[in-house]
């Protein structure tokens, strides 16, 4: 069993200014790559005139991350994404994405200055980020009859499973994020109710 680890409970935003450049950092909880990238895209829509939208994310247990990625988004290599990821790793937080939006103030900071600025912005957001202990989860895809959907939704609520996606066709296709310690119980429920697990 994987140990629990701290994850964000809400989205925060912090801003610092260095030599007239504004650095706006946003941090939020994400449990999959697609959600992290969607969060970055939202930041680009919210700040379309910013020069850079640099980011990093870490999924899963920070001591043995399932996935981590970073992007310098046009800044010199290693001066933005890596410092942001380093702050996340140092804080020991999992299932988190941090985007730092930069408005250039006309004064070049140099590579060392950029590293300090992006680290500082990420640190500012991470320091105000509310955290809670997360139970390790697994994404599960299920197929079931319409008549069983309410039963499954009730089961999910009782076991702190999160509904990620629902598609209606000949059957209901559900995607759930299920705490790993509830997977055996989900198996029992599926067998009893004739629900098919697709993953």
UniProtKB/TrEMBL annotation:
<dbReference type="InterPro" id="IPR015269">
    <property type="entry name" value="UPF0029_Impact_C"/>
</dbReference>
<dbReference type="InterPro" id="IPR020568">
    <property type="entry name" value="Ribosomal_Su5_D2-typ_SF"/>
</dbReference>
<protein>
    <recommendedName>
        <fullName>IMPACT family protein</fullName>
    </recommendedName>
</protein>
<dbReference type="GO" id="GO:0017111">
    <property type="term" value="F:ribonucleoside triphosphate phosphatase activity"/>
</dbReference>
<dbReference type="InterPro" id="IPR020569">
    <property type="entry name" value="UPF0029_Impact_CS"/>
</dbReference>
<dbReference type="Pfam" id="PF01205">
    <property type="entry name" value="Impact_N"/>
</dbReference>
<dbReference type="GO" id="GO:0032561">
    <property type="term" value="F:guanyl ribonucleotide binding"/>
</dbReference>
<dbReference type="GO" id="GO:0043168">
    <property type="term" value="F:anion binding"/>
</dbReference>
<dbReference type="InterPro" id="IPR015796">
    <property type="entry name" value="Impact_YigZ-like"/>
</dbReference>
<dbReference type="InterPro" id="IPR036956">
    <property type="entry name" value="Impact_N_sf"/>
</dbReference>
<dbReference type="InterPro" id="IPR023582">
    <property type="entry name" value="Impact"/>
</dbReference>
<dbReference type="InterPro" id="IPR001498">
    <property type="entry name" value="Impact_N"/>
</dbReference>
<comment type="similarity">
    <text>Belongs to the IMPACT family.</text>
</comment>
<feature type="domain" description="Impact N-terminal">
    <location>
        <begin position="19"/>
        <end position="125"/>
    </location>
</feature>
<dbReference type="GO" id="GO:0005737">
    <property type="term" value="C:cytoplasm"/>
</dbReference>
<feature type="domain" description="UPF0029">
    <location>
        <begin position="142"/>
        <end position="186"/>
    </location>
</feature>
<dbReference type="Pfam" id="PF09186">
    <property type="entry name" value="DUF1949"/>
</dbReference>
<dbReference type="GO" id="GO:0006446">
    <property type="term" value="P:regulation of translational initiation"/>
</dbReference>
<dbReference type="InterPro" id="IPR035647">
    <property type="entry name" value="EFG_III/V"/>
</dbReference>
């Amino acid at each position: 069993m994987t140990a629990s680890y701290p994850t964000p409970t809400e989205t925060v935003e912090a801003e610092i200014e260095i030599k007239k450049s504004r650095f706006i950092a946003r941090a939020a909880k994400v449990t999959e790559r697609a959600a992290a990238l969607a969060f970055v895209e939202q930041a680009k829509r919210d700040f379309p005139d910013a020069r850079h939208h640099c980011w990093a994310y870490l999924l899963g247990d920070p001591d043995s991350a399932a996935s981590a990625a970073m992007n310098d988004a046009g800044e010199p290599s290693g001066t933005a994404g890596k410092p942001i990821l380093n702050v996340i790793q140092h804080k020991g937080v999992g299932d988190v994405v941090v985007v730092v939006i930069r408005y250039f103030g006309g004064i070049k900071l140099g590579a060392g200055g950029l590293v300090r600025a992006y680290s500082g912005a990420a640190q500012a957001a991470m320091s105000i980020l509310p955290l809670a202990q997360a139970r390790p989860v697994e994404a599960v895809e299920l197929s079931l009859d319409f008549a069983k959907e309410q039963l499954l939704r009730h089961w999910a609520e009782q076991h702190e499973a999160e509904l990620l996606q629902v598609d209606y066709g000949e059957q209901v296709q559900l995607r759930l994020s299920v705490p790993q310690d509830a997977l055996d119980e989900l198996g029992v429920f599926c067998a009893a109710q004739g629900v098919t697990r697709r993953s």
